[in-house]
Amino acid sequence: MIIRPAAEVLFEKELHALAKADKGQKPANWKLSPGAVVDYIIGGKVGKLTIEPKYIGQRRLIEVAVASLATDRALLLSGIPGTAKTWLSEHLAAAISGDSSLLVQGTAGLLEESLRYGWNYAMLIAKGPSKEAMVPSPVLSAMENGKIVRVEELSRITADVQDALITILSEKTIPIPELNEQIQAKEGFNLIATANDRDKGINEMSSALKRRFNTVNMPLPQSLDEEVEIIRFRVEKLGRVIGIPDKKSTDQRIKQLVLVFKELREGVTSEGDLKLKSPDTTLSTAEAISVMINAQALSGYFGKDGISDRDMASSMIPAIVKNKDKDLSVWREYLEKVMRKRKDFKGLYEACEEEVRSLYL
Predict the structure, then answer these.
(1) pLDDT in tens, 110-126
(2) How far apart are CA 82 and CA 237, in angstroms?
(3) The predicted structure's pLDDT at residue 190
(4) Residue 201: pLDDT above 60?
(5) Which of 3, 50, 71, 196 gives the lowest tally of CB atoms within 10 Å of its CB?
(6) Domain definitions of the chain by residue range
């Protein structure tokens, strides 16, 4: 069994039902109309089939993103880590092109050929430059087939390599001087990039490259209840895919976690009566999902009666205390000034104190 099926495989039934019922106008080479793409992302019903929401938030934000991709402008999803940028880009590509596999993962060591093309050097030496000796990048493959390509972590790519995208996005061509020709993009080609705006070591995009994108800033969940719903949905889906024994993570556990993360992230209690220090780590929704999955695994494999206070403490603390020299003091201050005073956190407070003493002191 595949650990993580692609979105177009995992949600094949939904995509097929939407395509069958779709009466909207489709841009060239799109599998669904823009309206149906938004319905796939936001969720709803097609006949008797329920379309699960892939993104919980403002419908208008998704409409803006989809509308951008229907033009000749690329889409940049920007925001702090954990705001569902990668998740959304995958599902947009799956709904529009039926293929989310055309992906460039940005790193500081990425070479320009990863955005353009490389060579099979054995064939290059044997026969010289030719189409057969070329190794197309995911970007080139998307251009040739009129599909969406995804570039993850654009801000981690060095500026000179980033600028290789300028010609691609403005002229929709990739010159191949070795063959004295160029490859032109087919209709339906476009690019979705993601960028973390709080990433350490960020590489600023040039103004010329920025102009080639429509930017959608991905917000954090607007309320505690919205974040709880996002985490509950993702934990249920991931738990089934991974195969963790199901002992039902309760909404109450998720609410506790979301409240702790939110207060530490914002540097103030929910009541607004006490300012707090924040740890170095980004306590995002994605991090909270990982914490709940880990707690569910501890409970499923080693527990008896659902997720315990100890399961939560063992999963939360490593996510919060990344830098022991700074984060541990922040966490202990939060335990004493906030969590200890809340009656409904008594068990979790005691488990966290025990965990800190046994692992860090």
Answers:
(1) 999 999 999 999 999 98
(2) 17
(3) 97
(4) no
(5) 3
(6) 7-217, 224-360
